[in-house]
């Protein structure tokens, strides 16, 4: 057990080496400490509220629009303003805050780079601290990187606009404590990125911009609004300097989009369809509803009625309030095989064409190799415009709770179940080894996509579903497949890679969380205990 260092009102379990000293400066820690003291108790209450809301759904209620906020929904108002450099977001690349990736992403043919401390980052201490250094150097324009073969990476002129995605409210930063408890990871990421970069960002006519993940209610939006206002006052900045885009990626939040925009109206510039977490949240929120069990993962596409309704309602809600409606991530990544790559580009193109047609103002890509294809789709849809805030489609006028909760059609197959097992094990193994985003079977896998794989199986077991060949999904069947799929993974990856990895630990975690009666909230919570 390492010795605790006390700074300001916070305890640090890690020695302050060269990197920590750069980021955890006395002034930055004072600011972080102020935020933690002011906002941790209310953050804890918000997490308790999530449990209370879920209990009602578990007892049979369905999530729904709420009447207590009718005045917000019925009245006409707009969000405050959108800064000039956020008026064209037609293609945004995302990626973890690793040094080479940060440079490649900022140099990609995109408008925005979403630098990620969340779904694509396994937040071990070193990565989190280095991530802050990487972003600070990127903002200052001094970032560079030399790879093993001597290739030098540097920023090109006119890099993409930077937006930082902080960890979700549920994730702790275990290496920093306040009153004996781990502090919220979201405050850690927000405080340090804001503190070290706001001056340089504003000096170049940009600003401290954030993506906020996994929000579940407008009360959480209000909490963030207070955090932002506190930070602005602390730094003596005008109200509305900090700007945020909120991911609508939980089932509860889709019913409160107007309210989220309203409570963050000084600070918000848009909403984003975080489709993968949204699917995961649909499974998790409706976990006791046996008629809402999902089929194989590949059947759950944006053309499913419940996902189409979600995307169209988000666009309609945003445009009415003058906010950007950002599309989500197609998980296909480029392949070195020319034929396979053609297929990938076609799939991504089709997905993005649907988003652009529905009225999204821009979208996400996971890899620079997709930029040109997606840019072409949005260039065509936007024409001379930089966004399509003007789009209000008549056919989307009435989107109901029933549509948002529509059951999802498709088969549950043995191959689908086995694929879920292989993906979940390989992803968990990568995550507990410190890698939060990996290519698996030609798809980008991150914390959100892997959650779908592991919760699908839990749900199939829990509700005693049968596979298309008539097999009943049970714990013994799952355990047998888990053992068999471990052998498949071992064969696919080779003995050396397999034995050097943490596959046994990953499989043990997968076995535990899939067979226990309670569906655990987030894979990354027990995963974090296995991370440095
Ligand atoms: C559900 C959600 O939350 S989505 C948002 C979170 N997910 C993400 O951000 C996904 C980000 N993407 C990635 O991490 C990667 O693309 C992966 C892991 C999926 C695939 O990575 P790799 O296997 O390394 O891809 P590949 O070998 O084809 O990379 C080729 C080059 O592109 C770079 N690259 C790939 N993806 C990215 C990216 N997202 N940003 C910047 N550079 C990238 C690689 O660093 C590599 O650079 P190099 O040639 O200079 O060495
Ligand atoms: O964060 C994005 C998602 O799809 O989840
Ligand atoms: Mg997500």
Low-confidence stretches: none
Radius of gyration, CA atoms, in whole angstroms: 22 Å
Specify the overall morphology. globular
Structural class: alpha/beta
Q: How many strands?
A: 16
Could you tell me which ligands this complex binds, including any ions or cofactors?
A: acetyl coenzyme *A, the ligand O=CC(=O)O, magnesium ion
Number of helices: 20
Helix percent reads: 40-55%
How is the biggest beta sheet arranged?
A: 8 strands, parallel, barrel
Physical arrangement of strands within the biggest beta sheet = 3-4-7-10-11-12-13-14
Distance between the termini: 13 Å
GO molecular function: malate synthase activity
Protein name: Malate synthase
Keywords: Acyltransferase, Glyoxylate bypass, Transferase, Tricarboxylic acid cycle
EC number: 2.3.3.9
Fold and architecture overview:
This protein is α/β, with parallel strands linked by helices. The protein is built from 20 helices and 16 strands. The chain has helices at 18-23, 26-58, 70-74, 99-107, 125-140, 185-203, 218-234, 251-254, 257-263, 275-285, 305-320, 338-358, 371-382, 401-404, 414-432, 447-462, 475-493, 495-500, 503-515, 524-529, and strands at 5-7, 10-12, 91-96, 112-116, 144-146, 152-154, 161-165, 172-178, 181-184, 209-212, 243-248, 268-273, 324-329, 362-365, 438-440, 443-445. The radius of gyration is 22 Å and the shape is globular. The mean pLDDT is 97. Bound molecules: acetyl coenzyme *A, the ligand O=CC(=O)O and magnesium ion (MG). Ligand LL5AMS7Z is lined by residues 119, 247, 249, 274-277, 328-329, 448.
């Amino acid at each position: 057990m390492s010795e605790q260092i006390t700074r300001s009102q916070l305890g640090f379990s890690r020695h302050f080496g060269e990197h920590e000293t750069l980021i955890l400066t006395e002034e930055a820690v004072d600011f972080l400490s102020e935020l933690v003291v002011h906002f941790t108790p209310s953050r804890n209450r918000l997490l308790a509220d999530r449990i209370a809301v879920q209990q009602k759904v578990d007892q049979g209620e369905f999530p729904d629009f709420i009447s207590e906020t009718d005045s917000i929904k019925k009245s006409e108002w707009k969000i405050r303003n959108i800064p000039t450099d956020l008026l064209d977001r037609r293609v945004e690349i995302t990626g973890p805050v690793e040094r080479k990736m940060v440079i490649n992403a900022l140099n990609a043919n995109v408008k925005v780079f979403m630098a990620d401390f969340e779904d694509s980052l396994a937040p071990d201490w070193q990565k989190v601290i280095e991530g802050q250094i990487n972003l600070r150097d990127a903002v200052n324009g001094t970032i560079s990187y030399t790879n093993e073969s001597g290739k030098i990476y540097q920023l090109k002129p006119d890099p993409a606009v930077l937006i930082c995605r902080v960890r979700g409210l549920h994730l702790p930063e275990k290496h920093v404590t306040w009153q004996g408890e781990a502090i919220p990871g979201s405050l850690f990421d927000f405080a340090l990125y804001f503190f070290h970069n706001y001056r340089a960002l504003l000096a170049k006519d940009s600003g401290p911009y954030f993506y906020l993940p996994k929000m579940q209610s407008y009360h959480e939006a209000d909490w963030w609004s207070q955090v932002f206002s506190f930070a602005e006052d602390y730094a003596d900045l005008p109200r509305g300097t900090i700007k945020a885009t909120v991911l609508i990626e939980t089932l509860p939040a889709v019913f409160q989009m107007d309210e989220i925009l309203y409570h963050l109206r000084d600070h918000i510039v848009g909403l984003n369809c975080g489709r993968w977490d949204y699917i995961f949240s649909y499974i998790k929120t409706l976990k006791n509803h046996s008629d809402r069990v999902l089929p194989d993962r590949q059947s759950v596409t944006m053309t499913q009625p419940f996902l189409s309704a979600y995307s169209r309602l988000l666009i309609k809600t945003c445009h009415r309030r003058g906010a950007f409606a950002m599309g989500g991530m197609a998980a296909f990544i480029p392949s070195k095989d020319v034929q396979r790559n053609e297929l990938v580009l076609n799939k991504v193109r089709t997905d993005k064409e649907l988003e652009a047609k529905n009225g999204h103002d821009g979208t996400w890509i996971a890899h620079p190799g997709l930029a040109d294809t997606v840019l072409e789709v949005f260039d065509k849809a936007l024409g001379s415009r930089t966004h399509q805030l003007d789009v209000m489609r008549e056919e989307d006028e009435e989107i109901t709770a029933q549509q948002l909760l529509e059951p999802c059609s498709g088969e549950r197959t043995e191959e689908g179940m086995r694929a879920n097992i292989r993906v979940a094990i390989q992803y968990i193994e990568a995550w507990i080894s410190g890698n939060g985003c990996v290519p698996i079977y030609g798809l980008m896998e991150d914390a959100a996509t892997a959650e779908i794989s592991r919760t699908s199986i839990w749900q199939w077991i829990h509700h005693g579903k049968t596979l298309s060949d008539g097999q009943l999904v049970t714990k013994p069947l799952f355990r047998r497949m888990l053992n068999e799929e471990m052998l498949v993974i071992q064969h696919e990856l080779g003995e050396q890679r397999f034995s050097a990895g943490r596959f046994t630990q990953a499989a043990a975690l997968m076995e535990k969380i899939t067979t226990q009666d309670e569906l655990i909230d987030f894979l990354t919570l027990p995963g974090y205990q296995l991370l440095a």
